[in-house]
Amino acid sequence: MVSTRAVYRFETHRLQRHPDSVTSVSFRCLRPACAWSVGPTEDADKASDDCIRHAAETKHRLFASTAEDIAAVVPVK
Ligand SMILES: [Zn+2]
To answer: Do residues 22 and 7 touch, judged by C-beta distance below 8 A?
Structure first.
């Protein structure tokens, strides 16, 4: 959770995860010349299983991972 506080237009604000946000994840194989990737998807368990399956089939074991959600700037009262 991001908890940055800053003064903007004489009000203190905080950046936080939007309550309606759903985290999506994606993974990309880091082996050169391999274009395999999965996501973005909200099903993190399936994406993880897909990575493990790709590693088992190819011996490619390193992945770049990204998780994304929605953040909102809100005033601190
Ligand atoms: Zn790969």
So the answer is: no
Rounded-to-10 torsion of CA 49, 50, 53, 55: -110
Q: How far is the CA of 75 from the centre of ligand 1 (A)?
A: 44
pLDDT in tens, 31-70: 999 999 999 999 999 999 999 999 999 999 999 999 999 9
Q: Which of 26-30, 56-60, 68-72, 73-77 has the lowest mean pLDDT?
A: 73-77
For 10: left if phi > 0, alpha if psi spans -120 to 50, otherwise beta; the answer is left
3-state secondary structure at position 53: helix
Cα 67 to averaged position of ligand 1 atoms, centre (Å): 19
| Number of residues that this document lists for the chain | 77
Tokens 């998780």 locate to 67
